[in-house]
């Protein structure tokens, strides 16, 4: 099954994509994670992308589309995947339509006021696990439950950059809601609830679309 999950910064895309990955045994493909890994390697793509990411702007399509083209052609994508944060503009959605047919598009809808809290309290682990100081804390303060490594904050999780990411979401990403709604594959999930309740609603939507 081919699923795309989107929503504003801090909506819980990464958190929820991890549950679907586990349930359906399909890979989670996050453009944000792929780009951060290129930045860390200081590859040419990473060096070009970094400035945009630090400012909270979208990385230009020519960079993202070729990165995603190769990722989606990988062997582990043969029986489906969950896209986390892709597409996030009308031009990306149209480019994706040329490549594949999505079965389900889920938007996690969250009130703007909770998003800053969710992002500023987020702590990450290099193994991929995500925590929140208040809403999903690790068992030992500062250390990952899964692997014991130290947790860190993302470079773009500063309040000023978050505001720019929210603006980009409203202006460039929200238009894709209409695009997928017209195709009849969009499901909107109320993200103003606890992590588990959102998970249940998402799994229900996946089940209705024939995925579980
Ligand atoms: P990306 O990494 O995708 O960031 P984002 O879209 O801003 O979203 P986040 O990862 O911040 O939030 P999330 O929805 O995954 O929330 P999470 O589950 O972590 O993109 C980063 C940058 O890369 C972009 O700004 C852009 O520059 C570039 N980029 C990426 N994709 C691109 C593309 N396609 N094209 C061009 N450029 C691109 O949850 C957040 C926190 O809240 C966590 O601490 C979590 O524990 C907590 N939490 C989750 N759910 C709940 C809940 N229900 N209640 C309380 N707390 C919760
Ligand atoms: Mg994320």
Q: How many angstroms does the end-to-end distance come to? A: 9 Å
Alpha plus pi helix count:
9
* Global morphology: globular
CATH hierarchy class name: Alpha Beta
Secondary-structure element order, as H and E?
EHEHHHEHEHEEHHEH
Uncertain runs are none
- Any idea of the CATH topology? Rossmann fold
Helical percent range? 40-55%
Q: Please count the beta strands (DSSP E, at least 2 residues each).
A: 7
Domain count: the total is 1
Query: Which structural class do you get from the secondary structure elements?
Result: alpha/beta
Radius of gyration: 16 Å
Mean pLDDT: 96
**What bound compounds does this protein have?**
BIS(adenosine)-5'-pentaphosphate, magnesium ion
What fraction strand? 5-15%
CATH homologous superfamily annotation: P-loop containing nucleotide triphosphate hydrolases
In CATH, the architecture is 3-Layer(aba) Sandwich
The main β sheet shows up as: 5 strands, parallel
Q: Which strand order do you get reading across the main beta sheet?
A: 2-3-1-4-7
């Amino acid at each position: 099954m081919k699923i795309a999950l989107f929503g504003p910064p801090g909506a819980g895309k990464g958190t929820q994509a991890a549950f679907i990955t586990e349930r359906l045994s399909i890979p989670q493909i996050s453009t944000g994670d792929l780009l951060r890994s290129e930045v860390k390697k200081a590859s040419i793509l990473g060096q070009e992308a970094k400035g945009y990411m630090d400012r909270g702007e979208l990385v230009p399509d020519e960079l993202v589309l070729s990165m995603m083209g190769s990722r989606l052609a990988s062997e582990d994508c043969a029986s489906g995947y969950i896209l986390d944060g892709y597409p996030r503009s009308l031009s990306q959605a149209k480019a994706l339509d040329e490549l594949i047919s999505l079965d389900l598009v889920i938007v996690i809808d969250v009130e703007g006021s909770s998003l800053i809290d969710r992002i500023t309290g987020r702590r990450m682990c290099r193994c991929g696990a995500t925590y929140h100081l208040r809403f999903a804390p690790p068992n030992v303060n500062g250390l990952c439950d899964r692997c014991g490594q130290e947790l860190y904050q993302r470079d773009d999780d500063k309040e000023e950059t978050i505001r720019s990411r929210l603006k980009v979401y409203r202006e460039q990403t929200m238009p894709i809601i209409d695009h997928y709604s017209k195709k009849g594959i969009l499901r909107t999930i109320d993200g103003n609830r606890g992590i588990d309740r959102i998970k249940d609603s998402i799994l229900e939507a996946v089940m209705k679309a024939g995925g579980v």
